[in-house]
Amino acid sequence: MQQKGRIGEMVVQDILSRLGNEYIGFHDIMIQGNNGNTAQIDHIVFSPYGIFVIETKAYSGYIKGYEGAKNWVQFLKKQQRYEFYNPIKQNEQHIKALRTVLNDSASMLPIVSIIVFVGTKSIEVEATRAIVIRESELLTVIRNHVNEKLTMQQTYEMVDVLQKMNIISETMREQHIKDIQKRGEQVENGICPNCGGALVERIGKYGIFFGCSGYPRCKFKVSAKHNKEAIKS
What we know:
Elements: H1 2-16, E1 24-32, E2 38-47, E3 50-57, E4 62-66, E5 71-75, E6 81-85, H2 87-102, E7 111-117, E8 122-126, E9 131-134, H3 138-143, H4 152-165, H5 170-188, E10 199-204, E11 207-212, E12 221-223
Parallel strand pairs: 3-7, 4-8, 7-9
Antiparallel strand pairs: 1-2, 2-3, 4-5, 5-6, 10-11, 11-12
């Protein structure tokens, strides 16, 4: 799955390379938010028409979901179905970290969240907080943003900040992966990855889930049919 995901990112990177010189792209960026946690972002494109933060998913089959759901569903042949963490929520955390890194006034920056599915047959997703598309639609979606919202000087200044803040240390990148794996193992063992409390089974509006016994002090929860991607940064 990891190799497939990397291939999907390379496909999107190639597509983004076809944009004009006024677009400046970054790929496989790692930054640190104000909470000390690291976020690994697949693609960021800076331009006078806005900043595009892109999360890539290389999933075959059919995808269904909505932006408020914890998980989305991938449907394959022979009635196989797999849940995965809502990539809109995932990308919102990336954007939050990016705003923190850029500057104090970054809350006003025109940032567009895009979720790109590579190799997917069909997508059935209702969303207003992000644009959810297949890779063939990516260039059109970005080029449809034609109103200038930033000067080239502002664009270059943010590019300079990101270049300085990008974590290139292999040690820190390896630690990022280990942290994700550790959180997954904690959930598997019934331990809250946020506070170390016990996860207890509960029934909510959307069915059975596991929530932290420390609620409401700790609000961590995960679907009963959780996937390790559910705690991915």
